[in-house]
Amino acid sequence: MLINRFLRRGFCTAVARPWLFVGLGNPGDKYKGTRHNVGFEMIDAFAESQGISMNTVHCKATFGQGFVGDAPVLLAKPQTYMNLSGESTGPLAAYYKLPLNRVLVFHDDMGLPCGVLRLRHNGGHGGHNGLKSVMNNFRGNREFARLRIGIGRPPGQMDPKAFLLQKFNAIARERVSSKSLSKCVLQNLHSVVILRVPYITRNTFSAG
Question: Pick the catalytic residue: 36, 107, 121, 128?
Fold first, then answer.
């Protein structure tokens, strides 16, 4: 693809340096619609809104590339399973020679109420195994942005792992539906790439 050739050869002075948006999740129908897969869902929503086809596989990820305005955007959903997400994210960033401040990882977060969004421009993994894998593949470097998508905490004494792999109930699903969270995400990320923000700060946006 033309965009791929330009970016790979380092034409980022002629073509705006791309953003890499990575959604974390688990592949397969078994995990579709679960709390742990909201990162995948947000990538799909962004791709659909921008007319970007996620129909190729690159660096162990379902992958799409396109433009928002004239700004190039790379979208990825690692197919390595959550705990090995870095085995896809790291090679993708390296392949396109991207600095980490052009990488944004979408992930679920039990530390936030369901439906709440928070953006961090860097930080630790907070016990999230997908983020931990990404950081490990960036050689411990934590200077990449992450969009925290609140899924709430498990009720009572429920095992957190079981909670993560459980599908949303009707109320929770409405809070993370494409009509609510995705709209906020899409509007703000569209502004980020169109306005060519050099990097994301914690105040770029939040919702909830």
Answer: 36
36 is catalytic: yes
The per-residue pLDDT for 40 is 96
pTM: 0.86
What does CATH list as the number for 2-9+21-194?
Answer: 3.40.50.1470
All structural domains of the chain with their residue ranges: 2-9+21-194
In three state form, how does the secondary structure of the chain look?
CHHHHHHHCCCCCCCCCCEEEEECCCCCHHHCCEHHHHHHHHHHHHHHHHCCCCCEEECCEEEEEEEECCEEEEEEEECCCHHHCHHHHHHHHHHCCCCHHHEEEEEEECCCCCCCEEEECCCCCCCCHHHHHHHHHCCCCCCCEEEEEECCCCCCCCCHHHHHCCECCHHHHHHCCCCCHHHHHHHHHHHHHHCCCCCCCCCCCCEC
Q: Comparing 85-94, 115-124, 149-158, which segment has the lowest mean pLDDT?
A: 115-124
Q: How confident is the model at residue 5 (pLDDT cuts 50, 70, 90)?
A: very low
